[in-house]
Amino acid sequence: MVADFVKICKLFFYIQKSNVKTAFFNTGDAVVNILMMTINNLSFVFMWWVIFHNKGSINGWTFSEMALLFAVSNNAFATYALFARGIQNIPEYIANGSLDNYLVTPRSSLFMISVSESTFANWGDYLTGFIMFFLSGYVSWSCFFLMLFVSFMGFILLYALRLIVSCFAFFASDTQRLGDNMFMAFLTFGMQPASIFTGWYKILFLTIIPAGFLSLIPVRILTDFHLSDLGLMMGYCFLLLFIAIRFFYFGLKRYTSGNRFGVR
Amino acid sequence: MIKAWNKYFALYKISFKQAWYNKANLSGLLFFLFILIFIYNRLWEVIGIQTGEQGINSTFIWYLLFAEAIILSSPKIERTFFDDIRSGTMAYYINKPISFFLMRYTEALGNMSVCFCLLVGFGSLATLFFTGQPPFKIEHFPLITLMCFLSACLNTLLFAAIGLCGLWLHSIRTLSMAIERLAFIFGGAIFPLTIYPQWFVDIAKWTPFYSIYYQTIKLVYDFSWTNLGEVILLNGFWSLLFISFITYAYSKLNKKVNVYGG
Question: What are phi and psi of B102, to 5 degrees?
Answer without folding.
Answer: -65, -35
